[in-house]
């Protein structure tokens, strides 16, 4: 089908085009407790077509998935329809990526069997008790082959593993029971990290049955030690994107600090071409541009923007790309040092958001640990709020790092003087 699609799109009256052909070969496992309920083999192909039309001073685009079973006539009609839709979009003219050398990957084709075995072994090694155990879990192991082509002559292919685990755990105390859901994404399987994460979740389930109401704390230091911290670092990443800059959402400029009042550690954020066990280790981005290591923010100073071809070109930037992986350097203090004194560690939110446009943060506390000189209280309820515009000046983070799929960030992050509204009335 791909050969037919290429032939027809070249014959059409579109002015430019992009094709992404993704083949997924995978194994899936569905368990109830530790009993295999069903499993299946997956072998699928998805072809995405995007066409561009120039008119007046504008460039429009439209895209869709082309069924791999489509006939020549169906493909021809689909391309014609996309060309009609493309002229409804009015963007200033820009050009697509040109071919550039991409270093050949030395990663062999993913061994689905071996990766699956690692996941299965990991689940069998997780320590469960009579009151905290695994309810069910699903494992998805995939080997992805992605081929990207465009009308400027790019034709590149990347092969990499992409896995996902969904797990539900239960904790019980007398007549009370709680259920927690988790989803973990990765390239292959990091058995140690997966076991630690699920064991930690079992503990959180147990502690959820022991909570008291979060008191009204007013301004308080809040420690983030779970994946909620990703939202905090996305604030920095988003604000050095070409899209944010072009649309004047971000006023950050290369060579200038992210804030004029930085008092503690100064953040360093990098785009990473490769990150061990990430599911995003693709040699090129969604537009065919080679990905590479690049410092985005260094010691609090903006160095480079990242982004897609359209906004990068509007800003006059060359050699821009959309990273698959991001890293944040560790800070000057250890995790143990950041855990000194009074603070609220929130490990479970019903929802936690950081608005990269306004800087506002907000989250409802589902489980937290309130550390005071009197000891540690397990709390629930209430909320946290504030603004990254202020937190960025005084925030601190650990020298130790922790990986969440395609992000490597500090293991703990401390925001100071966060507004903590309690659940006590």
H/E element sequence:
HEEEHEHEEEHEEHHEEEHEHEEEEHEEEE
Strand order of the largest sheet: 4-3-2-1-5-6-7
Individual helix count: 9
Number of domains: 2
Number of strands: 21
Instruction: Please give the share of residues in helix.
Output: 10-25%
Q: Cα-atom Rg, whole angstroms?
A: 24 Å
- Would you tell me the structural class of the helices and strands? alpha+beta
Largest sheet: 7 strands, antiparallel
First-to-last CA distance:
65 Å
Q: What does it look like?
A:
The protein is 21% helix and 42% strand. The protein is an alpha+beta fold and 425 residues long. It has a seven-stranded antiparallel β-sheet with strand order 4-3-2-1-5-6-7. A six-stranded mixed β-sheet has the order 12-11-10-13-20-19, covered by helices on one side. Strands 9-14-15-17-21 form a five-stranded mixed beta barrel. Strand 1 (16-32) and strand 2 form a beta hairpin. The mean pLDDT is 95.
Task: Spell out the key features of this protein.
alpha+beta; single chain; 425 residues; 6-stranded mixed β-sheet; 42% strand; PmbA/TldD fold
Task: Give the helix/strand layout.
Layout: H1 2-11, E1 16-32, E2 35-55, E3 58-66, H2 72-86, E4 91-92, H3 112-124, E5 132-150, E6 155-173, E7 176-186, H4 191-208, E8 212-213, E9 218-224, H5 229-239, H6 242-246, E10 269-272, E11 294-298, E12 301-302, H7 309-314, E13 325-328, H8 335-338, E14 343-354, E15 360-372, E16 375-380, E17 383-387, H9 388-394, E18 396-397, E19 401-404, E20 407-410, E21 413-421
Parallel strand pairs: 8-16, 9-14, 13-20
Antiparallel strand pairs: 1-2, 1-5, 2-3, 3-4, 5-6, 6-7, 9-21, 10-11, 10-13, 11-12, 14-15, 15-16, 15-17, 17-21, 18-21, 19-20
